[in-house]
Specification:
alpha/beta; 6-stranded mixed β-sheet; 5-stranded mixed β-sheet; 10 helices; 33% helix; elongated
């Protein structure tokens, strides 16, 4: 039988948990490595709805991107997600910044592939793993590039600012990557794609003629789930793996 520990080891092989950033809390956060598994649900976030879906489908494990326990737990209410997981005997493996940076199988790699980037290389690094990447696309006008990102990521809407030049060199960082706008400028990027940008970061981009496209935290990270599902299914063909239908963007667009 396959165990939770087997899946943990498989994920660790492509996205070492030891490579996560210091502030992070990835790993096996709920349950036992010895627990047997036949059904697995994948989600960006473990919400009460995702736990309910896992329980109803008979899943023994949820693999998520965002950690279900991030800050120290000082109380545990019956409505809290960790409590619901334990109550339903569902384990949780969470691969966060280690999966963001993982080459080939990681979130930034999935985002670069979704946008069709060529000649991809690391723009900044954390230990030996890429933290942000930069690559090339066929030249597009800034507005056309924003529309291109919207279409490729299947987003209902997005935010962007127009740079002062055509877009060919594209830098990206999935999730909350606005802090890397300055790195994109220094790297000579024409555009930067991420999921969250603060006001002063927009201003910095405009001052430097950099096109920035903000396609939401969920929109720039959710794409990794299909890639992770494919990897795990190839490794464990007898497992029933499914992306959670209840794993949705918490943000509404109009």
């Amino acid at each position: 039988m396959i165990t939770v520990g087997d899946l943990y080891g498989a994920i660790d092989a492509i996205a070492p948990f030891s490579s996560a950033q210091e502030f992070d809390n990835p790993g096996l956060l709920v349950g036992s490595a010895r627990q047997q598994v036949s059904r697995v649900l994948l989600a960006l976030d473990i919400t009460p709805e995702v736990v309910r879906e896992a329980a109803e489908s008979g899943a023994q494990l949820i693999v998520s991107h965002h950690p279900v326990i991030f800050h120290p737990v000082r109380s545990l209410s019956a409505e809290s997600v960790p409590y619901l997981l334990a109550q339903n005997r569902i384990a949780a493996i969470c691969a966060h910044t280690n999966l963001d940076m993982a080459p080939q199988w990681g979130v930034n790699a999935a985002l670069a592939d979704a946008l069709g980037l060529q000649d991809v290389r690391a723009m900044t690094k954390h230990n030996e793993y890429a933290e942000t990447v930069i690559g090339r696309i066929p030249e597009l006008a800034p507005r056309d590039f924003a529309a291109f990102v919207k279409q490729k990521l299947n987003r209902p809407a997005l935010e962007y600012c127009e740079g002062n030049r055509p877009v060919c060199r594209v830098a990206l960082c999935s999730g909350a990557g606005g802090e890397f706008v300055a790195d994109a400028v220094r790297a000579g990027a024409d555009a930067f794609v991420t999921g969250e940008v603060k006001h002063h970061e927009w201003l910095l981009a405009r001052e430097n003629g950099l096109t920035v496209v903000c396609a939401s935290h969920f929109g720039t990270e959710n794409i990794v789930l299909e890639r992770l599902q494919r990897f795990l299914q190839d490794r464990f063909p007898e497992l029933q793996l499914k992306k959670a239908e209840s794993s949705r963007d918490p943000v509404c667009w109009m």
